[in-house]
């Protein structure tokens, strides 16, 4: 249930539902990290998580599952130009293509993590 709540966080940022602030570390190293992670290579295990994306409280699995499905459906139906230029808390402003790549990689990473 925590993973399902977690995967919603970057989708909510891409949709503009939340706007986390960039910290000084992200402002300084965001560009370097962007080149390293916003690409076609799968995420490796044990990558650090943006503090705004951490979910540590208990959640209801069915509720989080339905919310995750709704966010993914909303994102899928969206005109891509809507998310172009939205700010990621670590990588800064991303194009629609970069958001797509990053969100797909993030979802795949956690689905593989749980054998889905």
Write a structural description:
The two termini are 14 Å apart. This protein has a two-stranded antiparallel ribbon. With 116 residues, the chain is mainly alpha-helical. It contains four helices and two strands, in the order H-H-H-E-E-H. The mean pLDDT is 89. It has helices at residues 2-15, 24-37, 61-77, 96-113; strands at 87-88, 92-93. 54% of the residues lie in helices and 3% in strands. The longest helix is centred in the last third of the chain and has 18 residues, at 96-113.
What are the main properties of this structure?
single chain; 116 residues; mainly alpha; two-stranded antiparallel ribbon; 4 helices; 2 strands; 54% helix; 3% strand; globular
Distance between the termini: 14 Å
Element-level helix/strand string: HHHEEH
Tally of alpha and pi helices:
4
In this structure, how is the largest beta sheet organized? 2 strands, antiparallel
Unreliable stretches: none
Spatial strand arrangement across the major sheet:
1-2
What characteristic shape results from the CA principal axes? globular
Mean pLDDT: 89
Count of individual beta strands: 2
Strand content: under 5%
Helix content: 40-55%
Q: What is the radius of gyration computed over CA atoms, rounded to a whole number of angstroms?
A: 14 Å
What is the chains' assembly state?
Answer: single chain
Q: Which class best fits the helix and strand makeup?
A: mainly alpha
